[in-house]
Amino acid sequence: MDDSGIFLLNTRSRRIAAGTVIFLFVFAIGITLYVHPYQLHDTTITAKSKTTDAFSSVSIVGKAAIVYDLTTDKILFSKNAHAQLPLASITKLLTVYTAVKYLGIHARIPITHADVAVDGDSGFDPGEVFALEPLAGFTLAGSINDGAVAIARATASRVKKSIPELLSSVAQASGLTQIYALNGSGLDSSATVSGGYGSPYDVAILAGKLLNEAPGIASFTTKSTTTITSINGIVHTKQNTDPYVTDIAGIRLSKTGYTNLAGGNLVVVFDASFGHPVAIVVLGSTEKDRFTDVLKLIKATRSYLANVQ
Q1: HSE on the CB side for 49, CA within 13 Å?
Q2: Which of 50, 74, 94, 305 has a CA between 20 and 30 Å from the CA of residue 234?
Q3: What is the pTM of this model?
Q4: Where are the alpha helices (DSSP H) in the chain?
């Protein structure tokens, strides 16, 4: 074999070798591209399973509840979330929200004999006058009936509407189609009729609206004890009706409600992470179990968000 034959043979061998290398390279890429999507898919399924499991084992006593992400406008947990149930003192959130919209937080609210005649003992005296912000915060934190009645009366007088008409019109204008109220306190109107009705979904939206428009008022509800002073110089102190409020990290708002018709109600808004408020509402639980229900949902919410962030 001459040199040219050897050259051709070597050239042919090199071509075959090069072809083999290219084939193996392309094959390897093909295997990688084929496997990769399934690996991503498996990861997605795992993450989804983890987030779903966060709420799957949660059992609550309340007849209806919701976990509503106020940042993303998403429902994370729902149990009869659109059922319209008695609100009891959760109604006070609507009363305060309405006053903020019509009067502003610096408006002066006088206390009358008719106000202090309602059920409950706030310690207020007829003739005392308060700025709306501290009175509203005190009223929500201590669930003060005469404070709520005074706020509703003063607002209705300014707008020249009846209290039921005023509160229900504000709810409707705010897109809260399942909330209406017969009085400002939420006290049962009779043995069969509640002072206010609403769904967990609408209550969650309402809590978010009040927090956005009056964060100073909401902050009163995050303390175990609240003290305010009337313009007359009289000091008043009340315990928060939510005994667990200071145990909730990132708490932004808390409001309890309880009557014979409503059972135990509770709404809280807390920061699941910095600047990420989540509203939890439980309606129709018991006086004790409403707190346990909410604490369970808070724990599940933190677990859920830890797996999706």
Answers
A1: 6
A2: 94
A3: 0.83
A4: 3-56, 91-103, 113-116, 132-142, 145-159, 163-173, 200-213, 215-220, 289-308
